[in-house]
Amino acid sequence: MFKDVAFGQYYPGQSFLHKMDARIKILLAVVYLVCMFFIQSFFGFGVIFVLLALMIAFSGVPAKSVFKSVKPIIFLLVFTTVLNLFFNPSGEVLVEWWIFRITSGGLILSGKLVLRLVLIVMGASLLTLTTTPMDLTHGIERLLKPLKVIHFPVSELALIMSIALRMIPSLIDETDRIIRAQKARGADFESGNIFKRAKAFIPILIPLFISSFMRAADLANAMNSRCYKGSKGRTKMRVLKAGWRDLVGAFVIVAFFGGVISLNFLSGQLAGTLPWMYF
Prior knowledge:
Strand content: under 5%
Number of helices: 11
Number of strands: 2
Structural class: mainly alpha
Shape: globular
Radius of gyration: 23 Å
C-alpha cells in the first residue's frame, strides 16, 4: 500500500545524473522550480515534460518509479482542480448546473495548475532517486556554509534533513508491516466512507508512533556512544568535487531553461500570430 511512495528513496545507478555533484543538482532543481512558475502555457509545460522524459531516460531510473511519486498528491490535485474548475468565472461558460458553473478559463487554469504540480513533484523525485541521502545532506551543508558567519547551525540542519530522508523508507516499510498485521487480524481499511476509513487507521498510528520514538531513542543512544558533539572537529569521509559532468550538465540545463523562459515571454508578445504557443 505505502510501498508505492517513491519520494525520498534512492535508485542505485552509474548514469550521468547519478555521477553529478549533489550541489549542482540541488541548484539545478531550484532553477527548475523557478522555471516552472514562469511558464504559463501548455506548450511550455509540454517542452518541460519532454526534457524531464529525456532526463529520466538518461538516468536509467524506471519511469514507473518517477510517476509513482505523484500518487501521494492525488488528493491535492483533485482538490485544486475542483476549486478552480467550479469557482473561476473567467472565460466562456461551458456547463452550468444549479450554483455550479464550469468556464473555459477555469478549465484551462485547472489544467495548468495540475501540470505544474505534477512536473514539480516528478522533478523533485528524480533528484532524490539519483542522489543518495548522504550526498544530498553534504550538498545542502556546503551550499549553506556561508550562513555559518551568522552562527546558523548549518551542520545540525543538514544532519536533521539526512535523518529525515533516511527515515522515510523505514517508516514506509514499518507502516506496511503494521497494515498487513492488522489485516491478518481482520481489520478493514477499504470499505465504508471516508470517516470510517480514517477511524480504521488509528490502530496503525499508535504502534507507528511508538516504533518511531524507539528508533529515535536508539539513534540518540548510538550518537551519544560515539561521542557526537555537533560539527566541531568533524571531517568528511567523502569530499564533494565538481567535475566536467557538472559543468556540462549545468550549462545544458540552464541554457534549456533560459530558452524556455525566453520563448514563454516571446509567445506572449506573439499571441496574435502564434496562439498555439501561448495557449
